[in-house]
Design brief:
The chain is mainly beta and 60 residues long. The chain has one domain. It is 7% helix and 28% strand. It has 1 helix and 5 strands. The strands form 2 sheets. It has a 3-stranded antiparallel sheet with strand order 2-1-5, with no helix packed on it. It has a two-stranded antiparallel sheet with strand order 3-4. Strand 3 and strand 4 form a beta hairpin. The N and C termini lie far apart (36 Å). The relative contact order is 0.26.
Length: 60
């Protein structure tokens, strides 16, 4: 069978990339997907809320 089937919503997630950001408060690195970069992030270590666009370490 050459016709591959995917989960619903697969096409919309195919272009996502992983981005690493660093918390400005404690410098802990965390990974998020490119579609989450416009949302506020919460550090899992110190619980600080920050804008991930200003704290990118690597990724797009």
């Amino acid at each position: 069978m050459t016709d591959q089937q995917h989960c619903p919503g697969f096409e919309s997630n195919k272009s996502l990339s992983a981005i690493k950001v660093a918390c400005p408060a404690c410098k802990a690195e965390m990974e998020m997907f490119s579609d989450e970069i416009d949302k506020k992030a919460t550090c899992p270590k110190c619980k600080a809320t920050f804008d991930p666009k200003s704290c990118k370490v690597s990724g797009q």
